[in-house]
């Protein structure tokens, strides 16, 4: 697909709508509320990102508004949602430009709302600059050859989600939400499982997030997910029924 960029040297990119496409949407509930991830669309966005294709979130949420609910205030919540659910933070805009190769949007024909089902087939929309990537999509997804299969991506998605859940619990206990917070919680609470989650879980999560070409093996991914589950159980062990530390 040869995109006319009107003389611009900008890199071609693929846009994803947020509400109803990447995230479930059942009505406006405020700038701070973003729905649960639509798993199928999230996997597509992650795959394109892994292939080196530039991704943008295209949403009216960041358009300037007189009531102050748009712009940078909305951007902060979207970036947090992307970190937790995509594993990376793409550029966020409310404008299309000549370098946009395709747009996934529930209000367009391409995507069925809240399911991520692509009605017209999406590999044909890949930029011409990524013809090799287009072939890779077919090879890696349909033929499940080298590169991330759907199951690979699902496991990576599950690891990022598990880390977000555990980090949220640790943050809620007042320890913060980074790697050092795991160590502080482990020392304070004497939950050995948190140390294993830091080594076997968060270490793998960080490689997934910061190295788009990294694909954990099934064994490594399962070990990471077990570490997160065990750490959650360890926290349950030291928590009272009131949700506070015993």
Describe this structure in words.
The chain has 246 residues and is of the alpha/beta class. It folds into 2 domains: 13-142, HAD superfamily/HAD-like (Rossmann fold, 3-Layer(aba) Sandwich), CATH 3.40.50.1000; 150-238, no CATH class. The chain has 7 helices and 4 strands; from the N terminus they run βαβαββααααα. It has helices spanning 39-50, 71-85, 131-142, 150-172, 179-189, 192-210, 218-238; strands spanning 13-16, 54-58, 91-93, 100-104. It has a 4-stranded parallel beta sheet with strand order 3-2-1-4. β1, α1 (39-50) and β2 (54-58) form a beta-alpha-beta unit. α6 (192-210) crosses α7. The longest helix is centred in the middle third of the chain and has 23 residues, at 150-172. It is globular. The termini are far apart. The model is unreliable at 1-8 and 140-146 (pLDDT under 50).
Q: What is the CATH class designation of the largest domain?
A: Alpha Beta
Alpha carbon gyration radius: 20 Å
**Number of distinct beta strands:** 4
User: Strand content of the residues, in percent?
Assistant: 5-15%
Instruction: Describe the main β-sheet briefly.
Output: 4 strands, parallel
What gap, in angstroms, lies between the N and C termini?
61 Å
Helix and strand succession?
EHEHEEHHHHH
The overall pLDDT average reads 78
Structural class: alpha/beta
């Amino acid at each position: 697909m040869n995109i006319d960029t009107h003389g611009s040297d900008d890199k071609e990119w693929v846009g994803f709508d947020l509400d109803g496409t990447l995230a479930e949407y059942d009505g406006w509930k405020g700038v701070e509320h973003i729905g649960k991830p639509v798993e199928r669309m999230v996997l597509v966005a992650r795959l394109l990102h892994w292939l080196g294709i530039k991704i943008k979130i295209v949403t009216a949420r960041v358009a300037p508004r007189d009531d102050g609910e748009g712009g940078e205030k909305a951007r902060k919540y979207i970036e947090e949602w992307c970190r937790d659910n995509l594993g990376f933070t793409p550029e966020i805009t409310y404008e299309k430009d000549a370098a946009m190769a395709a747009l996934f949007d529930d209000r367009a024909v391409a995507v069925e709302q809240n399911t991520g089902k692509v009605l017209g087939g999406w590999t044909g929309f890949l930029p011409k600059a990524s013809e090799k990537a287009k072939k890779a999509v077919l090879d890696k997804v349909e033929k499940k050859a080298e590169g991330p299969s759907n199951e690979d991506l699902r496991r990576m998605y599950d690891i990022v989600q598990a880390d977000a859940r555990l980090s949220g619990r640790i943050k809620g206990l007042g320890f913060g939400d980074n790697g050092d917070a795991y160590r502080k919680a482990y020392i304070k609470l004497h939950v050995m499982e948190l140390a294993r989650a830091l080594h076997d879980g968060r270490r793998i999560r960080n490689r997934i997030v910061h190295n788009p070409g990294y694909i954990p093996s099934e064994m490594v991914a399962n070990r990471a997910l077990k570490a997160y589950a065990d750490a959650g159980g360890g926290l349950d062990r030291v928590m009272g029924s009131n949700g506070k530390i015993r």
